[in-house]
Amino acid sequence: MLLVAWLFAEVATASAIPTVADGVRAYEAAELERARALLERALLDTSLDAASRIRAHAYLAATHLALGDQPAARTQLAAMLDVDANARLDAAVFAPELLALLDRVKRDRAAAEPKRPEPPAEVKPSRPSPPMPQAPQPPPAVVSTAEPGPRRTVGAVLLASGVVVAATGTYGLVTVRGRADEYLRQQGKPPEQRTLTREAAQRDLWLYPACGAAVLLGAAAGVYGAYELFRADVAVAPTGTGVAVQGSF
């Protein structure tokens, strides 16, 4: 029973706060209202890293634009640039209208920035000094369709727990059914030769549906755990010379 309670707690915790990937899948399925709600709730998670937050703002902006709310889309693009001023959108994923809107937001932000005062005139030395080495700049983040890796640990635990619960329930079903058959066979014998009482048979009537529920619960947990454990995980990471695509199963 403790195992079943822990299993329900794990599933409830995992589904309490939607992930950015949940909102992306709803957007890709053209469920725009659901995508908007899921992405807005996902952005409330203060533990999101910068890449996930950029990705959430980008897809939420695309959702608002698809719903015809361009001001809300501009707000999300501005929030994305607040996380990374050099953030870009993948032209192979997002609509040209959203790319054009991002360019306008960047131009508006650049025009609103106060101009820096002109530096004082420099006195050049007679001999030119060697150029100062510059630290390499990190490449800008590119929002693409990569999803965060699945929670393999939770998937493995759910799969193992589901197998154990389903196996226990199956054993209980077989045992209770065998006792019921034995009780029916003993009805023609004298009372002193019977090994199963009427009270025991009535108790088994309550155990049978409980064992069946355990089988269903274990099977559902095992299927969900297998999905989380073996789901493909693709990530897009920027490199010094481009974008590297990494995948695992």
- Could you list the spans in which at least 5 consecutive residues all have pLDDT below 50? 1-14, 232-249
Q: Work out the number of β strands.
A: 4
How many helices in DSSP terms? 8
Query: At the fourth CATH level, what is the homologous superfamily of the largest domain?
Result: Tetratricopeptide repeat domain
β-strand amount: 5-15%
CATH topology of the largest domain: Serine Threonine Protein Phosphatase 5, Tetratricopeptide repeat
Architecture blueprint of SSEs:
Blueprint: H1 2-16, H2 20-28, H3 32-42, H4 50-66, H5 70-83, E1 88-89, H6 96-112, E2 142-143, H7 152-185, H8 198-230, E3 233-239, E4 242-248
Parallel strand pairs: 1-2
Antiparallel strand pairs: 3-4
Helix pairs in contact: 1-7, 2-3, 2-4, 3-4, 4-5, 5-6, 7-8
